[in-house]
Amino acid sequence: MKEKIKQKLDAARAGLLATLEGLDDAGWSATVYAEGDSWSVADLVGHLADAEWGMTRLVQQIQQGGQGAPPDFDLERWNARAVARAREKTPAGVLAQMAENRANLLALIDTLQEEDWPKQGRHGGGHILSIEQIVRMVAVHEKGHTADIRRALDANQAPS
């Protein structure tokens, strides 16, 4: 199971990095989400970096017998703060943080035993998930937002 999950994580990251490769300032500034608090490509990549960091910590906590996020956890507020912090970094800084976070997640996966994978805790979104579901969610989350970034970049390149 570990190797299959690692392959999914690797594929998701490769897709994201291929999408971001060669972006200029205008590309990093392209709007991905315009509703509510507008998020640019850079904002969304910062969100992904923070989300992986958070989900890695969540898995560690659940592995050690914790319950996960508190019932009153406010994911929207968390995400808004994470994006605000990421705006203080350059794209290269955020990508470096993503690489470090991924290395930490992969190292954590290597420590997981068969009995750890079904352990459950509360995800920040409020759902009770197993460690396996949370780790798989990292890849799914990254792939979903990569598709959103691609759509935004394609829309910005379309002739008016």
Order of helices and strands: HHEEHHHEEH
Shape: globular
CATH topology: Four Helix Bundle (Hemerythrin (Met), subunit A)
What distance lies between the first and last C-alpha atoms, to the nearest angstrom?
47 Å
The average pLDDT score comes to 94
Number of helices: 6
- Order of strands in the sheet with the most strands? 1-2
What's the number of structural domains?
Answer: 1
How large is the share of residues in beta strands? Answer: 5-15%
Assembly level: single chain
CATH architecture: Up-down Bundle
Q: In this structure, how is the largest beta sheet organized?
A: 2 strands, antiparallel
**Cα-atom Rg, whole angstroms?**
16 Å
Count of DSSP strands:
4
**What is the name of the CATH class?**
Mainly Alpha
Structural class: mainly alpha
Proportion of residues in helical segments: 55-70%
Spans of 5+ residues with little confidence (pLDDT < 50)?
A: none
Give the CATH H-level superfamily: dinb family like domain
Secondary structure topology:
Elements: H1 2-20, H2 25-29, E1 31-33, E2 39-40, H3 41-63, H4 75-86, H5 91-111, E3 120-122, E4 128-130, H6 131-157
Antiparallel strand pairs: 1-2, 3-4
Describe this structure in words.
With about 160 residues, the chain is mainly alpha-helical. It has one domain: Four Helix Bundle (Hemerythrin (Met), subunit A). Helices cover about 65% and strands about 5% of the residues. It is built from six helices and four strands; from the N terminus they run ααββαααββα. The chain has helices at about 1-20, 25-30, 40-65, 75-85, 90-110, 130-155, and strands at about 30-35, 40, 120, 130. Strands 1-2 form a two-stranded antiparallel ribbon. A two-stranded antiparallel ribbon has the order 3-4. A hairpin with a 5-residue loop joins β3 and β4 (about 130). α1 (about 1-20) runs parallel beside α6 (about 130-155), α3 (about 40-65) runs parallel beside α5 (about 90-110) and α3 (about 40-65) runs antiparallel to α6 (about 130-155). The longest helix is centred in the last third of the chain and has 27 residues, at about 130-155. The radius of gyration is 16 Å and the shape is globular. About 30% of the residues are buried.
